[in-house]
Design brief:
InterPro entries: 4Fe4S_Fe-S-bd (IPR017896), 4Fe4S_Fe_S_CS (IPR017900), Cyt_c_oxidase_cbb3_FixG (IPR014116), Electron_Trans/Redox (IPR051684), FixG_C (IPR032879), Helical_ferredxn (IPR009051), Ig-like_fold (IPR013783). Keywords: 4Fe-4S, Electron transport, Iron, Iron-sulfur, Membrane, Metal-binding, Transmembrane, Transmembrane helix, Transport. This is Cytochrome c oxidase accessory protein CcoG. With about 475 residues, the chain is of the alpha+beta class. It has a domain of about 100 residues: Immunoglobulins (Immunoglobulin-like). It contains 16 helices and 14 strands. Helix 4 runs antiparallel to helix 6 and helix 6 crosses helix 8.
């Protein structure tokens, strides 16, 4: 059995030959081409397009309602997502969404390890974008390493200045796009361009500009390794059956150059396919050597797979020396046993069904919820009052929520307490509630009763005839006059 290495020690990016236990000063990854790099570019493009375009999508909700498809409306206290509208009282939907996201992340980990980190995590997406700019201006890894120790020239200063200027522009665009989710995007964008936006908007743009510039430009692998809590959980939830990036050591060892391997094979001695070119190390954005075994810092981006496959193809050797493979199959390979792929197994099935069940539950709940709501709160002090005629009176606070875009009238009623008198303080039993608003009422119930009785308040929509019910208690003879 394998143990997951959590004593992360990345290799120096500039060393030709990796040595165990050397701490990295700075990881300078080399560019690479291949299947997984192309997938990462596609994912990066899709993520950035969604992030920057989503605030500008429109969605009709009727007169007086915001027309932005996705909006966190702080002024109204609403969250809009296309046809879905979440009120502050429905924060449990956001809780459910967080639980669902956690389940999806755990399910992905059971299938393919930290593949979320390697392809979809915002830190990875923006780091790849910053690296693209860096390579475009300063060159690939070899050129950048040479320039790190070279004296500053006018050309070099210009390159550094242009690179950081573009980084700052990207970071500002990131912060600017984020605040567009909290107000009407075209309006806020115009206000920010003309200096008429609020101090809060400019402050958040400044904060997110600084964090994006720092994390994607300088922190990079430190975020994925030390700042993010997710890799720290890998030691607890690492699954040897998951398709993670692994080195087939039973095929690659002992390492040696192509010429040396040919000589060993000619003499009938064992020789591995790994030529110790360290391409898997220099392309790694984290700077680890995957040949050392499973490492919690590996983000499963697959770039080392592309690099190794490229070398194997040039040497005429089979691809897949480094590949997405279950660790159990690595151990089977050492024993010369055939591999067994078990992506579909009780763990992944159970997690998948949990994700589907929770998503379905939330979907059904959203589909069945009403656009109006009734809440009743019983008075606490005093809980009841005895009147001069011997009756007992209880006081309640009723809240009516009208989540629709039109004015509505509700008739307040009472059930479960015969001969009770219902009084809506300052109003009659027909209550008007403005569109997209809450109305709070003071209600008194008087009756000749004893003990604790279960009652139900009703609010009937006059236009549709639909009723809402909220249950409470009527408490008799427990108060003073």
């Amino acid at each position: 059995m394998a143990t997951l290495d959590i004593s992360f020690k990345p290799e120096r990016a500039h060393l030709r030959k990796p040595k165990r236990g050397v701490i990295a000063e700075k990881v300078v990854p080399q560019s690479v081409t291949g299947r997984y790099r192309r997938i990462k570019w596609l994912v990066l493009t899709a993520c950035l397009a969604i992030y920057y375009i989503l605030p500008f999508l429109r969605w009709g909700r009727g007169e007086g309602q915001p027309g932005q498809a996705v909006l966190f409306d702080a002024e109204r206290g609403r969250l809009y997502f296309f046809f879905i509208e979440i009120w502050p009282q429905e924060v449990y939907y956001l809780t459910g969404l967080l639980v669902l996201a956690t389940l999806v992340l755990i399910w992905i980990n059971a299938v393919a390890g930290r593949i979320w980190c390697g392809y979809l995590c915002p830190q990875t997406v923006w780091t790849d974008l910053f690296l693209l700019v860096e390579r475009w201006i300063e060159g690939d890894r070899r050129e950048r390493l040479k320039k790190q120790g070279a004296p500053l020239t006018a050309r070099r200063i210009g390159e550094i200045g242009v690179k950081h200027a573009i980084w700052i522009l990207i970071a500002m665009g990131t912060g600017g796009a984020f605040v567009l989710y909290f107000a009407d995007a075209p309006t806020l964008m115009l206000e920010m361009a003309t200096g008429r936006a609020s101090v809060i908007a400019y402050s958040w743009v400044g904060i997110l500009t600084c964090t994006t510039y720092t994390l994607a430009g300088f922190a990079r692998e430190q975020v994925c390794t030390w700042m993010c809590p997710w890799p720290r959980l890998q030691g607890a939830i690492w699954d040897p059956e998951a398709l993670t990036v692994n080195y087939r050591d039973y095929r690659g060892e002992p390492r040696g150059s192509a010429k040396k391997a040919a000589e060993l094979k000619a003499r009938g001695e064992p020789a591995g396919d790994c030529v110790d070119c360290t391409q898997c190390v220099v392309v790694c954005p984290i700077g680890i050597d995957i040949r050392e075994g499973p490492n919690f810092a590996c983000i499963n981006c697959g770039l080392c797979v592309d690099a190794c496959d490229s070398v194997m193809s040039k040497l005429g050797r089979p691809r897949g020396l480094i590949d997405y493979e279950a660790w159990t199959n690595i151990e089977r390979g050492r024993l010369k046993e055939p591999p067994r792929r078990r992506v579909i197994r009780p763990k992944t099935i159970g997690l998948g069904l949990s994700v589907v069940a929770l998503a379905a539950l939330m979907g059904v709940s959203l589909g069945m919820r009403s656009d109006a709501k009734l809440i009743v709160i019983h008075d606490r002090n005093p809980v009841s009052v005895t009147l001069s005629n011997g009756q007992t009176r209880n006081g309640y606070t009723i809240r009516l929520y009208n989540k629709g875009g039109e004015e509505r009238f509700f008739r307040i009623g009472l059930a479960g307490l015969p001969d009770a008198a219902l009084e809506v303080v300052g109003d009659d039993d027909l209550v008007e509630v403005a569109p997209d608003a809450t109305r709070e009422l003071r209600v008194l119930v008087s009756a000749e009763a004893h003990g604790r009785l279960s009652i139900a308040f009703t609010a009937t929509d006059v236009a549709t005839g639909k009723s809402m019910v909220a249950e409470d208690m009527f408490i008799a003879n427990e108060g003073g006059r």
